[in-house]
Amino acid sequence: MAIQRELWEETIVGNVFRKNDFWMDAFNADQYVLQGRVVHIPQAGGLIGVSKNRNSLPAAVVRRTDTDATYSLDEYTTDPVHIPYADQVELSYDKRLSVTSEMVSALRQLVADNALYSWSPDVANYSFTKVNATGNDLAAYTTSAAGTRRGTKVADFLTMASLFDNEDIPEEDRYSILDANQYYSLLADLSATQFRDFSQVIDPRTGKVDELYGFKIRKRSKVLVADSNGIVKAPDAVAAADDCPVSLFWQKNSVERALGEVKFFERLDDPTYYGDIYSTLLRFGGRVRRADQKGVGVLFNGIGGQGA
Questions:
Q1: Is there a single domain that holds both residue 223 and residue 259?
Q2: pLDDT tens digit string along 177-205?
């Protein structure tokens, strides 16, 4: 019996993003995806000029030049998985989830890593908002890194909030995502005596910090990695001894996500495998929405022992 592909595809999408809630904290560009592969968004031109007490007539006529923002979605494909006795798979929802678990776990990490990277500022085009972390030194923990790295303090969030305010970034819907080590570094700073006033932001039952200086806080095992100069590296870049962790800060309308086509493939009754072969394809992408890249910032946890 052939599987219900739509049901499997929905299950895969739901579980890929279930543990990466941060992707919901961005502008949703799904409606602009063409043929499941390319995002095409019309961009309005510059603002219309306004004069007070105009005394020169006729006024100069201007023409607004609109542009298009277009980018291709990345394609993620899983290795084919062999499922014996496939005709029994749809007996229960739990069984279907167990079958797709390998595909989901493989997709989840890679898609999330690249989504965060697509939201990181491009230093080649804009002197982006970068805050150097000022917390206590931590033992280096990214792959191949050596030495110590700066931890995260409450004061670093205050600095980032000030920079966002100076760029007139809306105060609502601001987010941040920290890796586990930096999250607990922040938590330790919040628990210190001098920051007792911040105790109301910590859930005493879970020790969870939900928001600080207007930034809703997300936690993940890892976020981004940069070189010693603070330039964010692609997830598949070669690790180096001087790599440093980076936390990401953004306003919801400053970044976007787009989910394209999702395909579930099958080869039934394969005589060499005595069962069925399945694989899946998913297209997903994102970007910093503003050309000047304002509304996105990084907290750079640089090499320790160098002062704040």
A1: no
A2: 999 999 999 988 887 655 555 556 777 66
State the DSSP string of 202-236.
B-TTT--B-EETTEEEEEES--EEE-TTSPBPPTT
CB 187 within 8 A of CB 223: no
Question: Is the whole model's pTM more than 0.85, yes or no?
Answer: no
The continuous run of DSSP H or E covering 268 comes out as strand 255-270
58 in any annotated domain: no
* Element (DSSP H or E) covering residue 110: helix 93-118
Cβ contacts of 49 within 8 Å, gap of 6 or more: 62
Quick check: is 200 in a domain? yes
Dist. CA 189–CA 192, nearest whole Å: 5
Pick 282 or 127 by higher pLDDT: 282
- Per the CB < 8 A criterion, the answer to whether 39 and 73 are in contact is yes
The boundaries of the domain holding residue 110 are 5-45+64-118+255-288
**What token pair was written down for 22?**
């941060």
Do 94 and 226 share a structural domain?
no
Residue type, 43: Q
Give 50's DSSP letter: -
Residues 171 and 160 in one domain: yes
Are 89 and 212 within one domain? no
Q: What mean pLDDT, rounded, does the chain reach?
A: 83
Please check the confidence at residue 35 and state whether its pLDDT lies above 90. Answer: no
Q: Is 27 within 8 Å of 257 (Cβ atoms)?
A: yes
Contacts of 243 (CB under 8 A, 6+ apart): 142, 143, 144, 145, 225, 226, 227, 228, 233
Q: Which residue is listed with tokens 């923990």?
A: 141
Number of domains within the chain:
2
Tally the residues of the chain.
308
Of 138, 113, 139, 145, the closest CA to residue 240 belongs to: 145
Determine the Cα angle at 243 with ends 17 and 210, to 5°.
Answer: 40
* Residue position matching structure tokens 């031109």: 45
